Task: structure prediction
Amino acid sequence: MATSAIGKVVGTEKKPNTAFTFNFWCTPDAPVGIGTIVVVRGKGRTVWGVVTEGFGYNDLEAPMYDYIGSDGVAEAESPTLRPEMRLYVASVLRQQPEEPVQPAPIAPVYLADEAEVRMALRMENFAERAIPAGVYRNGENLSPILLDSRFLLGPEAGHLNVTGTSGLAAKTSAIMFLLQAIFQKLPQDESVAALLFNVKGGDLLFIDLPPEPGFLTDEDLRMYDALGVVPKPFEQVKYYAPFKPDRVNLNTLRSNPALRHNVLPLHWGLKEVLDYTEVMLNRDDIDVKADAFLQFIKQRAVDPGKFEFDQEEQQAGAPASMPVTNFAELTAWLDTVLKVAESRGREAWRSHAYPTIRKVYNRLSNLTTRYRGLIGESGYISDLPDRFEDRTVYVIDVSQLEQEEQDLIITRVIAELRKRMESHKLGVDHLIVVVDELNKYAPSFGRETYMLRTLLDITERGRYLGLVLFGAQQFHSQVERRVAGNCATSFYGRIEMEELAQPGYSVFGQAVKEKLASCEPGEVLIRHPHFTQPVFVRFPRPCFLRGSDGIRKYPPEEKPFDVAVWETLQKLNPALEYAQVKAVIDDVAAHSNGIDEDRISEAMHRVLQERPDPSRVLERFRAHLPKQVSSSVLTSPTGLTGPAFNPARDEEFDPDDPFNF
Amino acid sequence: MVQGATTLERVRSYLRQNRSRLRAAPTPEEQMEMLAQAQQPSPEESIASLQVIEHDTMRATAVPPADQPNALRHFLDGIQRQRILYYEGVVPVFYAYLSAVVRSRVDGRMCCLQLQHTPALLQRDGLYAPLRYVDAEGLRQHGIPVRDTEAGTPLPPHPTLVQQSANRISNDRELLERELAQRWLQHLQESGSEDWLVVDGGIGEISAAKPETRLIGLAKTSTGVERSLTPEQMRVVYGLAKGERTSVFAISRPGQPATYSWFVRLHDPQKGSLLFGLLRVEMPAVHDLLKHVDQLSSWLLQDRVPLSVPDPRYDRLLYPMRDCEQYLRAIAPSTAQLEALVQMVPSTPMQETAF
Result:
């Protein structure tokens, strides 16, 4: 307990104390402000509170009196200074005895020290499962503010929502520090992993590397010390990124040779993305008919992996059976379907209208071009691991991608995590998935999207099943209420006044809002189930190499095409030499019209898909490349030659419409 | 006796046990009327003589600017709060709370100095009544301080009883102020301080014991002195402009030592009545102190700010003096506390008691 009182509770008829708020006066120089935690010690009752409003007074009844008294001279000297005081309103955090609940007694008020802060926030109840979130600063003293892991990661409650203006070290920094604390402080008999999306620059691409010297200030280190968290980068991190358009280099800023060892490709095939046509295709594309045909494709062709044509269809030219396991095979299958339909006078095929089949064909066959580095024809899959590992961070870099690619990745990853959650196949007790821009993926207005339903499901049931959402957004008011409302813990960093004017912030007093509008970097207001009232907390900068420093220290380095192919194949056969791969590529180039990167990368992906014995890697690579065809120039016996077939010359030509409808 | 309790708590205990034989007190409004009717002219109003000593005749002088830092450092004032709590038969029993404080100006802030042997605050409370007509023994047994208003026999009429109690209370308050002032003057003298002690009203008997001390009194009303002014003197006094003072004059009152006095105009009279901003200052009648008159006047003019608004006497009430009043009111028993005690005695007596 602080040794001397800093004020005293006052209650008047006009401004009485209640069981939930009390008023106290202080001298102007008392170290009290909005967010200060205080304790009232009365006879037989102790009340802890957090300051939520403040007023300054002197004994002047009206400004006019001061004007008259000073003869209108602002700098007029006065031998006596009017007494000045501060009146603070505090919201009750806790009281003892807990029952009966009573207004605060008229008694002296003290600043809360570390032990008092612990009592005020009921932190003594969960010491063995406490996760440090930051410090409460009382003068020079730093008191740890702890969160209950069972209310942060489940099963009692779960999920975190962070609101803050972008670029002011509120959202990402707060989450990253909290993740470091969770990894260090969660009991070792509980496993935890985190999955992040790097959406901007190199922000999260160097989190396994120590920061530049001096990045962590003395104050940061003091906070780490007070919180018992070791300032060290994440020890186990795996990065994922799709390919660049060349389909051999990864589309990430973490491409420096020194850092490539833990960067893995993210590459999907037909089966992986067919469920997400809602994301990939625009709304006009997916009418009821198209959706029905897509479901048909999924259930009757893709899920079984092949399609059996009936006798009648076979008579129309279709084979008895066709494999449908990747986009190339799907395209061939749709070609056949269309041919069968055409042979019947373009009538409906299996109750699906011909134009619908054509439309779906056009849209699906285009996906490997639109999502070039992410979705491949070959069926080569490189995805997140089947089971996540304890104390490991998985970073998916989407920063270099177009918006539609980002949306597909984030939607599919989240949805897949939900599926794994349902089947208890996460591999860890708690998987934390961090989603920024929640107002985009779970908006409070507009139609209910697949992503919104997924996020709702995660926030409603995930805490029981080990999947925890750490969501962040700039505008809390624009996030679906149920998603944000299901998050038991909330952080609020600096928020613009326009946003604070929204009804969702009416629970905060005006002074708290004004403090939120001017929050410094590294300061957040925390709501947590154990805290009766939100408290302002400071947290240190997370300990890892900052994105801009990482890019400067490890500049991105794109590999030449042939080197990238060699290095990729080398993962299957470490003995493979560059010259061998180079020779194959050059050979193909010599017999083609230069290097056809599409074909070479496709061949590389097929090898990766096959995962042949190391000794056969080069052979299989060569096998998937175009065969050299012996050719000779034919001359018409009559000497007649015609123009070469060039469909593109036709003004009506549509590359997505081979049938020119 | 209720151990460790305040006077009010003891009175409450007493009333709880005796209320059945007591009669209810008048309402606050009725009491105010009774006190107004019983009020007598104060000694301030009777002046034996008034003699100008600074100049040949009384005249107005512009107060020169102060050349020394303001040494009006300590300010003394007192308050009294009184209430008829109940009647014992037809005898009114008053509760009175008296207090006096010295507030000191330190770095521009008013505060109570914590000195080892000189208190900043004196407080007293108790019941006031002609003890021969009330249950004095019962009150004493409850540990209630009682003050005898010494009514003789036969029992005086009710207005006289009220007046006697009111006078006794006022006298006690003056004694309390005097006691505090003298202890402070003693302290200032012993410590060799150059500070001045400022008291509210005339300095009267305060200066009798230590006439050489740095003491001034500030009289906001001066009916008695004004009555003693000649027409020429009146013209000078009422004609003072802002920042002017009159010549110093000596006044003597019956049974009190002579004092020096002068008027000073704090505020422009154009903004108010003839008396607007007109303050009368008293100091001990010691010739050597006359050299401080200009300095003291200039300090008083400095103390026009801050204004003592919203007090209606703000044109003559110095802010530090108002601070004393505010302080004392803040720590005095509240009206609600006193009315709660009054309410303990029902309006209709349950049992008549005759003396």
About this structure: The first helix of chain A runs from residue 63 to 69.
